[in-house]
Structure formats: structure tokens, C-alpha cells
Write a structure and sequence with these properties.
Blueprint (H helix, E strand, L loop, with lengths): L4 H6 L1 H4 L5 H10 L1 E5 L5 H11 L3 E5 L24 H12 L4 E5 L8 H7 L4 E4 L4 H14 L3 E7 L2 E7 L7 H4 L12 H4 L4 H19 L8 E6 L4 E6 L32
Parallel strand pairs: 1-2, 1-4, 2-3, 4-5
Antiparallel strand pairs: 5-6, 6-7, 7-8
Helix pairs in contact: 4-5, 4-10
Length: 271
């Protein structure tokens, strides 16, 4: 593909970067990113990926916009309360950038449908913006089995974390967190609270990882967990090894088919 004059102007600040240029912007425009969850993490990630010109964005969510969402889920506006989040997200992205094709999936990800959702547009990169442990483990397992790179992130109160998985290049989410915690072992998002801007910080980092992957530049957060404490304004990058005994990506995996855990409950690592 070749860039139009309008695209040359729209993405001019990308194009002047030697790591991007016109060819890199064409890669972005040809890129396909699936965002599972359009909440605190997925909302800012989707907006920055849309602004960047990612040509195909998938939005997965089965929830409607609630007034309490608006403190952090910036893709939705006051007039969107009561509207399906995927519809609100699609409308925002369409108004922002006509170059972006948005595909929506009004459903909860399950073992029965996640493969089909990921394969629908043959997405290049997956963003986990969910707010419950069962979904996070399901997304991880699906991406490992389908050999798809993805970004995990979680936020709570004034803290957040993120890591990136690329097939064959480092540990998966289950290497670090082997199983979901017991039900009620951690506070829910409603109980714990979260500073609204935390989603912006971590969601934007996820979008950054997606763009770097599409461009093939820089170092991704493979083999590392990046943590953020807003109160001390401290980032910490922790090296994490692959787990040879990991149940899904280890040398002798025991998870070879997808399955659902108990019905999702909001996690302490919330979106």
C-alpha cells in the first residue's frame, strides 16, 4: 500500500521517526490488534492505537457503560451511559480516525469462542484489558496455544503491572501466576478502588507494546514484568524466567485444550 497525502500529514510525526518512516506507518495501517475489554485499560489503549492508524481494531466486551466507568474509561462519554461498550468504543474510534476498521464482539470470552474471535480477522497482537482472573488465564492459554503475542496488564488502587508474551521468546502469564487465586481471596475492584489515571498509564504502555510489535522495533517486555507505583512514582522492571514446568508453555504441557474457570469475578488487578 502507499500513503495518501492526507495520511502523510496525519501521521507525519510518526513518519519523521527513523524507526517508523513511511514503510513503518504502512505496517501500522496494515496491522490488526484485538482488545479484549474496553474498560480502564482497553479504553485508552484503543484510543491511542486508533489515533496511530492501526488499520483493524477488534473490541470485545459484553458490558454496558455505567456512570462509575467514566472516571477512567475515557473512550466512553456521559451520553453513552447505558449503551453497549463496544458500540460506544466503535463510535469514538470512527470519529477519531476514518482509516481504522473496527470489528466488535458483543460477548464474554469463553473457551468456546475465544479461538474464533482471535481467528476472525487473524489478529496480529492481543491486548488483555479484562478485569477478572478467569479471563486473564483464558486469554493467556488461548494465545499460547494459537501462538499469538499478547500484552497483559492489571491495575488496582495506585499500582499496576504489565508484561508481554511473544511465542518462543519468553514466559507466559501462567509462568508467573500459575493459577487464579481462590474465590474471595483478593478484594474486588469495587471494594479496592483504583485511581482513574492508572488505566491511562498501563493501557498506554500496552498500546506501545502493540505498536512496537507491529513495527518490529525496540525491546518488548518479554521476559520482564514492569510494575508501577503511582504514589512513589516508581517503575520497576523485574526479569522473569520461563517456567520449564509451565502447564501451558512448558516442556511437557498439561494444558492442551482451553477450559473455563469459575464464573468471572472482578480481580484485584482490575481494568
Amino acid at each position: 500500500m502507499s500513503l495518501t497525502n492526507e495520511q502523510m500529514e496525519r501521521y507525519s510525526r510518526h513518519i519523521i521517526l527513523k524507526q517508523v518512516g513511511g514503510k513503518g506507518q504502512e505496517k501500522i495501517l496494515s496491522g490488526k490488534v484485538l482488545i479484549i475489554g474496553t474498560g480502564g485499560l482497553g479504553a485508552p489503549a484503543a484510543m491511542y492505537l486508533g489515533a496511530a492508524g492501526v488499520g483493524t481494531i477488534g473490541l470485545v466486551d459484553y458490558d454496558t457503560v455505567d456512570l462509575s466507568n467514566l472516571q477512567r474509561q475515557i473512550i466512553h462519554q456521559t451520553q453513552d451511559v447505558g449503551k453497549a461498550k463496544i458500540d460506544s468504543g466503535r463510535e469514538t474510534l470512527a470519529a477519531m480516525n476514518p482509516d481504522v476498521k473496527v470489528h466488535t464482539y458483543d460477548e464474554q470470552v469463553t473457551a468456546a469462542n475465544i479461538r474464533d474471535i482471535i481467528r476472525d480477522q487473524d489478529y496480529d497482537f492481543i491486548l488483555d484489558g479484562t478485569d477478572n482472573f478467569p479471563a486473564k488465564f483464558l486469554i493467556n492459554d488461548a494465545c499460547v496455544l494459537l501462538k499469538k503475542p499478547f500484552s497483559h496488564a492489571g491495575i488496582i488502587r495506585f499500582q499496576g503491572q504489565t508484561m508481554t508474551y511473544v511465542p518462543g521468546e519468553g514466559p507466559c502469564y501462567r509462568c508467573v501466576f500459575k493459577e487464579p487465586p481462590p474465590k474471595d481471596a483478593v478484594p474486588t475492584c469495587r471494594q479496592a478502588g483504583v485511581l482513574g489515571v492508572m488505566g491511562g498509564v498501563l493501557g498506554t504502555l500496552q498500546a506501545t507494546e502493540a505498536l512496537k510489535y507491529l513495527l518490529g522495533v525496540g525491546e518488548l517486555l518479554t521476559g520482564h514484568l514492569l510494575t508501577y507505583d503511582a504514589l512513589s512514582m516508581t517503575f520497576r522492571k523485574v526479569k522473569i524466567p520461563s517456567n520449564k514446568t509451565c502447564a501451558v508453555c512448558g516442556e511437557a504441557p498439561t494444558i492442551t485444550e482451553l477450559f473455563d474457570y469459575d464464573p468471572p469475578v472482578c480481580t484485584s488487578k482490575v481494568g
